[in-house]
Amino acid sequence: MGLKKTNRHLLLNDLKQNRSLWAMLIPAAIFFIAFNYIPMGGVILAFKDFNYVDGILRSPMVGFENFKFLLLSGKLWNITWNTIRYNIVFSAVGLVLQLSIAIFVTRVGGRLYKKFLQSVIFLPYFISFVILGSFTYNIFNYEFGALNAFLTKLGLERLDVFGNPDCWLGIMTFFANWKWMGWGSVIYIATITGFDPQIYEAAEVDGASIWQQIRKITLPMLKPTIIVICLFDVSRILKGNFELFYNIIGDNATLFNATDVIDTYVFRSLTRNFNVGIGSAVGLYQSLFGLVLIVTVNWIVKKIDENSALF
Amino acid sequence: MNRNQSHAAFNIAGYTFLTLLALLCLLPCLLVLSGSFSSERQILTIGYTLIPEEFSTDAYHTLFKSIGEVLNAYGVTIFVTVCGTLAGLFCTAMTGYVLSRRNFRYRNQVSFLIFFTTMFSGGLIPWYILMVRTYHLKDSLLALILPSLLAPFYIFVMRNYVKSIPESVIESAKMDGAGEWRILVRLILPMCVPALATVGLFIALDYWNSWMPALLFIDDRAKYPLQYFLYRMLSSVRFASVVSAKSGVPTPDLPNESIKMAMSVIATGPIIFLYPFVQKYFISGITIGAVKE
C-alpha cells in the first residue's frame, strides 16, 4: 500500500513537472486507447452469440460454444495448419533469397549496374497488393491468362490454375517473396556492411578465396542476425498475409481448403457469413497464441543475444 | 582455381542471380503494361502476352471517357494521403520525441504500452463493430485516415533517431529558457529532417496503397480511393458495373480485359515515377528501425 502511494505520488509529480511532454503524448494516447485498447475488450464477443440488435454488451453469453463448434467442425485445425504451412515456406524461401541477395550485393564488383539491380529488386515493395491481384489474373486466368496463351502457342494443354488447389503454395510463395525479398535483404546488407573490413583483408592475405570468406566469415558472423530473424518469424507464424491472400484468392471457394488462412477466415465470418461470435473466437485464439509465442521467443532471444530482444 | 578466376566466377554467379531476380520482379509489371496496350480482340482470342500482338490504346481511351470517376478516386486518395501523412507524421514525431527523452521517467512504460498493441489485439471483428457502431465511421473519409495514423514501428524509428541527438543540445536550450514545445518545433524537428522524410514516405506509401479500410467501411462510390476503385474493377466481371455506361459506349463493346490492366497502370504510375528519388530514404528507414535503443 505504501509503495503504491509513493508510485502514485511520483506519477502525479511527473505529470506536473513534465506537463508539456505528457501533453505531447495525448494524440498517441487517444489513438492507441481508441483503436487498440478499447477493442481488446471486444474479445468478450468470442463467448457470445452476437446479434446486431443487442450489440456487444447485451448479446447473450454462450460460454465456450463458439470454440467447441470450431474444434468439432475441424475448421480451426484446417486454417491453423494452412497459416503455419504457408508462413514456414514463405520464411524459409525468403531467408535463402534474402541472404543470397545480401551476400552478392555486398561482394560483387562494379557499382552502377549493381545499384540498378538492387533498386529493381526493392521495387515490388512499393506495389500495392491490389495490383498483385491484377498480376495473378493476368497470368493465371483460364481463358485469357498469359500462361495459357503461352502454353497454347507451344501446342500444350491449358492449365486451370484457379480451379486447382495444389498450385497455390508455390504461387503464394512466389508473390510473398516477390513483394518482400528486397525489403528483407536490407537488414542483412546493413549487418554485413557493419562488419570490420580488416577481417576480410586478413583472410585475403592468408589466401582465402571469396567463396571461403563467405562460408567461413560472412555466414558465421551473420548467424545471430539469422537466428533472431527466424525466431521472430516463428512468433508471427499464426499471423497475417490477409492482403496477399484476399487479393489473389478472394472469395474463390474451390480453393478454400488449400488457401484459407486465419485472417481470411475471420474476414469472411464478418463480411460473408455474418458469424461474429465464431470469427471473434478465432481472432482471440490467434491473438492469445501469438502473445504466448512472442513472449517465449523473446525470452529465448534474450538468452542468445540480449541486445536483439524486443522487451 | 586461382584467385582471379574465383573472383570472376563469383561475379558471374552474383550478377546472373541478381539479374534473374530483377527480371522476375519486372515480369509481372511488363505483362500488365503489355495487357493494357493490347487490343481486346487479341486478349479474347490469344490471351495476354508479354509484348502486345495487336497494339491498341482503346483501353486508355475508354478510361479517359469516364475520366471523372478515375479522377475522383485519385482525388480521394490524394486527400487521404496528404491529410493522413501530415497529421500522422506530426503525431509520430511528437511521440517519438517524448519517448527519446532521458529525463522523461515513464518512457519505458509508455513505450511498452505502445509496443504491446503489436503483440495482442482484440482482432478484426471487435475493432470493426466499434468503428461502425460506436465511432460511427461508416462511409466517412475519417475511416480511411484514422486507423493508420500512428504505427508503433514508425514511432520507434523516430525515437531511435532523436536519441542520436546529444542530450546536451536539449539541456543548453533549456538553460536559455526554451520550453519543451519550442525545443521540439524549433530545435529537434529541423535536426530530424532525414528521419521525418523517411517516416513521412513510409506513411504516405501506406496511405496510397491502402484499400482494406475502404473495403470494410466505404459503400459510397464517390468516396472510393484509387486502390479500392481498382479492386472493385478487378473483382467485378464486367467493367461496366463499376464505371457506369456514361461514356455512351454500349457495354458489350467496352474493352473489359485490357481496361483492368490500364487501370492497374494508372493506379501505380505515380509511385513508379517517384520511386527512384525516394528509395534511399526507405532503405535508411529500415536500417534505423532495426537498430534497437
Care to give the gist of this entry?
The complex is a heterodimer of chains A (311) and B (293). By secondary structure, chain A is mainly α.
Chain pair sharing the greatest interface: A-B, 105 and 98 residues
Please state the oligomeric state of the protein chains shown: heterodimer
The total of beta strands of chain B comes to 0
Mean pLDDT of chain A: 89
Distance between the termini of chain A: 28 Å
Number of domains of chain B: 1
Sheet/helix structural class of chain A: mainly alpha
Low-confidence stretches of chain B: 238-252
Give the CATH H-level superfamily of chain B.
Answer: MetI-like
Radius of gyration of chain B: 24 Å
Q: Averaged pLDDT of chain B, please?
A: 87
CATH class of chain B: Mainly Alpha
Structural class computed from helices and strand pairing of chain B: mainly alpha
The CATH homologous superfamily of one domain in chain A is termed MetI-like
Alpha-carbon distance between the termini of chain B?
Answer: 45 Å
Tally of individual helices of chain B = 14
What name does the CATH topology of chain B carry? Answer: MetI-like fold
Query: Which second-level CATH architecture of one domain in chain A applies?
Result: Orthogonal Bundle
CATH topology of one domain in chain A: MetI-like fold
Question: What report would you give on this structure?
Answer:
The complex is a heterodimer of chains A (311) and B (293). Chain A is an all-alpha fold and 311 residues long. Chain A has 16 helices and no strands. Chain A has a domain of 185 residues: MetI-like (MetI-like fold). In chain A, helix 5 packs across helix 16, helix 6 packs across helix 10 and helix 8 packs parallel to helix 13. The longest helix of chain A is centred in the first third of the chain and has 33 residues. Chain B has 293 residues and is an all-alpha fold. Chain B has a single domain, classed as MetI-like fold. Chain B contains 14 helices and no strands. About 5% of the residues of chain B have low confidence. The chains are: A mainly alpha (311), B mainly alpha (293). At the A-B interface, helix 1, helix 2, helix 3, helix 6 and helix 7 of A face helix 1, helix 4, helix 5, helix 6 and helix 10 of B.
